[in-house]
From TrEMBL:
This enzyme scavenges exogenous and endogenous cytidine and 2'-deoxycytidine for UMP synthesis. It is an enzyme of class 3 (hydrolase). It comes from Corynebacterium otitidis ATCC 51513. Its EC number is 3.5.4.5. The gene is cdd. The keyword Metal-binding applies. This is Cytidine deaminase. SUPFAM superfamilies: Cytidine deaminase-like.
Length: 141
């Protein structure tokens, strides 16, 4: 169930909204921003970056996550506590299927989106991508 939450998630959404303001989306005019939160408290931002060869577009969430991985401390396992997503023309803006799978890779625990009144909704990842395929499936192969 989606659960309205207080300030920290609201701050994460505010960061995602700032990132959405930097989107490069000349083809869709659909600006998206994401803020990825690591268990350490580190936050990285991403926005969608489109391309004239449309298929080369990269979503906001994947840009935020790849930066989180690149910016982590040496020896720190890449992990995600939460990812907040804001679409300037969609409320809520849910992550696409490809992004859900990438969030899954790093054990994302929650996705935070804006509800109809702009409130933070925290959704457990199991509801975002149930019965998912992940790294554990490849253990012992
Ligand atoms: N987009 C994202 O950035 N994240 C999503 O999860 C959904 C879609 C972007 C991709 C494209 O630039 C635009 O939104 C329209 O699909």
């Amino acid at each position: 169930m989606e659960t309205p939450t207080a300030t920290p998630d609201a701050q994460l959404l505010a960061a995602a909204r700032r990132a959405a303001g930097r989107a490069y989306a000349p083809y869709s005019s659909f600006s998206v921003g994401a803020a990825a939160l690591a268990p350490s408290g580190a936050v990285t931002l991403g926005c969608n970056v489109e391309n004239a060869a449309y298929g080369e577009t990269i979503c906001a969430e994947r840009n935020a996550v790849t930066t989180l991985v690149a910016d982590r401390e040496p020896g720190e396992a890449p992990a995600l506590e939460a990812v907040a997503v804001v679409g300037l023309k969609a409320n809520p803006c849910w992550p696409c299927g490809a992004c859900r799978q990438v969030l899954r890779e790093f054990g994302c625990r929650r996705v935070v989106v804006e509800g109809p009144d702009g409130e933070a909704l925290s959704v457990p990842f199991e509801e975002i991508l149930p019965h998912s395929f992940g790294p554990e499936a490849l253990e012992g192969r």
